[in-house]
Structure formats: C-alpha cells, structure tokens
Model the fold of this input.
Amino acid sequence: MEKEIKISTEVLEAIVIQIISEIKGVRLLGALNGNISYFFQKKIPERSVQISLKDKEVLIKVNLSIQYGEKILDKAREVQEAVKKTVESTSDIKVKSIDVNVKKIYFE
Done:
C-alpha cells in the first residue's frame, strides 16, 4: 500500500526564496525579506513569492527588484529557469508557470 506524500506550499516557497537569493543582481520584494519600512506602512505588503498547487502542478509568482544596469528581461528569464529547474528537481512537482513581476530597480 502506497501512502500519499504531500509537500506544503511553504516548503516550495522556501526553495524559491533560496534559489532567487543566489542569483546576482536580483532581490525579492516584501516584508519577509528584511525591508523594515513595510512595518511602518498602514497597508499590508504583497508577498514576494506566491505559490499555488493545482492538479499536481505548481504556479509560482515572484515580485522582484533588479539591480540598475542589469538587463531586466535576461534576469527575469534567469529567475524563471533557475526556479523551474530547482523546484522540479527537488520536489518532483511540475512547474506549470512562473510569473516574474519586476517592480523596482535598486542601486548599489
């Protein structure tokens, strides 16, 4: 008898956050990513990573800031490819889509 194994969306979110943190020139947005200014605002910030599981497939949305001088489309594609490869190889869950929203530019 085979038992069902479930992977929570929180685990998938942690995988996505880790892989994006390893990509040069890209930062996640959101209160969970060390931006204290969100705590002083009245509105609730949008999450930097959103995960939905549907029919044994995962849909991923990420909100990013790209470093000034980087090619935005190249970085967005790099994020999509790295996230897809890592999520599928570590979880055996098919990635149906990865929406990348570049919302800000940062300077260093």
User: Anything to note?
Assistant: The longest helix spans residues 72-91. The chain is about 30% helix and 30% strand. Residues 9-106 form a domain with the Alpha-Beta Plaits fold (CATH 3.30.70.1350).
